[in-house]
Amino acid sequence: MADDKSLFEAEMAGVKKLNIAPRVERKTTSLSAEQKKIRRTIAVSEDSVDSNQLMTDHLEFVEPLSYLEFHRTGIQHGVLKSLRLGKYGIEAKLDLHHRTVEQARSDVYEFVRDCVRYDVRTVIISHGKGERSEPKALLKSHVNRWLRHLDEVMAFYTALPRHGGYGAVYVMLRKSPEKKLENKERHERRR
């Protein structure tokens, strides 16, 4: 150890310490009042834009006791069967009972978007059978249409009786972009 120290001191013999205080110069450019106003206007307009494209018109009604099912191509048969039989753990639930169509539209859109963002893959949406509503199965019909139009939805099936039966659907959502990348990297390491 003494040899290392003496070797270091020998190497540093001619070095002189600089007497400069460490500093970082920051350029701050203040925005003009007009620029600030433009930024505020843009921020407010982005918040007020409704990105929810789910439609409430031209509805094809389903019966209160009809079985709902949908899946995109490319999903393995075993995965669909497990979803249909309620074998996946329910990670989140949305209850639409006593909601208006417009409230339900907003709730479904936000729920699906948030679930994908937080890597929630299997959810249940309780829409009710709609036997006592007028027209019959109004929310059920809307949910059936909305879920088909959301790209995040990979599949959905009417739930088993213990999870709401004809008044609910199991929904499988796509992976978040982060999970897709993580999965891709994991599979590439295997090669």
From TrEMBL:
Name of the protein this chain belongs to: DNA-nicking Smr family endonuclease
One Pfam family hit: Smr
Occurrences of domain Smr (ranges): 94-174
Nuclease among keywords: yes
Record's keyword terms, sorted: Endonuclease, Hydrolase, Nuclease
Taxonomic superkingdom: Bacteria
Single GO molecular function: DNA endonuclease activity
Organism, as annotated: Umboniibacter marinipuniceus
InterPro entries: Endonuc_SmrA (IPR047688), Smr_dom (IPR002625), Smr_dom_sf (IPR036063)
